[in-house]
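Data availability (excerpt). The following record was deposited with the supplementary files.
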Amino acid sequence: MTDEIQLDHAKMEFLSLTSHHLRTLPTGIKWTMELLSPRIEKVLRVSDIKLWNDLKETIARMIELADIISKAAQLELGKMFIFSEKFDLSKLIDKEIDEVHGFVQKKHLRITKQYEITDIVSDKNQMQMIVHTLLSNAVRYISDGGSIEVHTFSSDAHVMVTVKDTGWGIPKEQQDKVFTRLFRADNVVKADVDGLGLGLFITKLLVEKLDGKIWFESEVGKGSTFFVKLHQPRV
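Predicted structure:
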């Protein structure tokens, strides 16, 4: 058993180191493409601009996957530390909505938001990862023309964040596996949507590390709603 634990630890160390290096190259490509975009898009045909934007989305996805692998390894190794600070949750969510804007436009989605709170005290980086995963999943696992609702509000000494979508939903018989490592629902696999099955696994670990809870309600063909509840100290 000790040998297996050491081997697992070595695997996580390797994944953490490798994912860091895998992120470096596409990040450099992304920034170069961003700098070139204003000039290149002036000379490209409309059809070529679409290919250029598809390439940018692919690079962004590569970076996201490297981040997910790195985050999973750090959590497994116990190397994730919490740094609480006061920040504007609404601005953080708006930034993450901007990050998925390209996919929202491409799929003709409608995003509505309702913020009943602004400033909270938590780990900003980890909260950003949580919101990013929930929004990315909502955008990814939804048909064209669907809608997404983001809501924040306070409940007793807690802050609540909900992300509701009109997506494909999660089969009832598989819902108990949603937060497990490498899980991907059958309807997602059949639709051939890319993913590692680590996003919600990591999100649950992060929420719990922030002394919070995460759960969801879902029905196939009608969509899903994810709830995140975090304790808030008096400020």
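Summary of structural features: The longest helix spans residues 2-43.
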